[in-house]
Amino acid sequence: MRKMNILAIESSCDETACAIVKDGTEVLSNIVATQIAEHRLYGGVVPEIASRRHAECIYQVAESALAEANCTLNDVDAIAVTYAPGLIGALLVGISFAKGLALSADIPLVPVHHIAGHIAANYISHPDLEPPYLCLVVSGGHSHIVEVLDRTRYRVVGRTHDDAAGECFDKVARTIGYEYPGGKFIDAAAKIGNPDAYKFPHPKVDGCEYDFSFSGLKTAVINLVHNSVQKGQSLVREDVAASFQRTVCEILVGKTMKAAEDLGYKKIALAGGVSANSGVRNSLAEACKKRGYDLYMPDLKYCGDNAAMIGCQGYYDYLAGKRADQTLNGIATLSLEKISEI
Q: Under DSSP, is residue 145 helix (H, G, I), strand (E, B) or coil?
């Protein structure tokens, strides 16, 4: 394969990120400017604030990524940028910056789907991973079971019908008194709580055996907490966290194993922000070990939103001939299966 450097830009939510990735899997730099502290004041991401912060720091983040990689724009062969899905204002900051760089430096521009980037994070941590395989994608906005047919083609076989798993983590965390983002607090509490303390539902979607529904689970936890408050009863929030997290893990892993068995996959991957959750990682590892499946998970530093994963996927998209011109626009919602049509 041709040796090349990709300058990658990610701004789909509240992380302004730029990276230099060489040959798809060698990360020369990976700079992330987070906005968590500011959004924590509001209990979640405020889209307008996120967009403004991206605009304020994207130049410096890109400059730092080039400097850390000891590169200039003359060393960059292509620019990869997240164009979908995400917060539209946030996406447009990264896209506009990428288009300006590509035009001024006469560098090819490669549009990258955010979820494809999360899946590609596994190629950085596991360069030996080869499609086809089945990937469980779990993040704040997405919960998918995806057949990765090759590095640029996908088939979604399972998806959420309402809340995503990561969103459910954050809302449950807020209900039991933890700060935003709540996933890491739930994870920490679950390690010391009793997972058998409470029995929560495992919602199902009729006719869609691989699909998810987390709204009912979220509501069950909220009702438990509110009813306890109204009755003057105390709850051990570590026990609530542990019981909730185990339920989520059982749902995610159970449906993934069912899909793998039915579709004939023995190679499983995990991706997305919730892939950093120790409960999910351990549960999936145990299930795969029991069945003799090979499991691939990204390093923790590549689980959340970052530009290295976009650079990795951008490399394979570039090799597949994907290009964008100055008409490239952001798309707030776009199925992973649709990217071959763009």
A: strand
CA angle 234, 240, 242 (to 5 degrees): 145
pLDDT (tens digit, 9 = 90+) per residue, 209-234? Answer: 999 999 999 999 999 999 998 999 88
The two three-digit tokens of residue 170, written as one number: 């954050």
**C-alpha 53, offset from chain centre:** 20
From CA 300, how far away is CA 338, in angstroms rounded? 28
Could you give the strand order of the β-sheet that contains 294-296, starting from the edge strand earlier in sequence? 153-159, 143-150, 133-138, 267-271, 294-296
Write the DSSP assignment of 190-214 as a string of letters: HTTS-TTS--------TT-TT-B--
Angle at CA of residue 10, ends 294 and 213, nearest 5°: 55
Decide whether 5-119+303-341 matches 131-298 in CATH topology: yes
Each domain of the chain, given as residue ranges in start order, spans 5-119+303-341, 131-298
Q: What is the pLDDT of residue 1?
A: 46
- Rounded-to-integer distance, Cα 123 and Cα 317, Å: 14
Q: What is the pLDDT of residues 139-162, one digit of tens each?
A: 888 899 999 999 999 999 999 999
More confident of the two residues 340 and 9: 9
Q: Structurally, what CATH architecture does the domain formed by 5-119+303-341 represent?
A: 2-Layer Sandwich (3.30)
pTM of the model: 0.95
According to DSSP, the β-strands at 15-22 and 26-34 are antiparallel
d(CA 271, CA 265): 17
Which numeric CATH code is attached to 131-298? 3.30.420.40
What distance in Å separates the CA atoms of residue 31 and residue 64, rounded to the nearest whole number?
7
Tens-place pLDDT, residues 62-105: 999 999 999 999 999 999 999 999 999 999 999 999 999 999 99
Phi and psi for 34 in degrees, rounded to 5? -95, 150
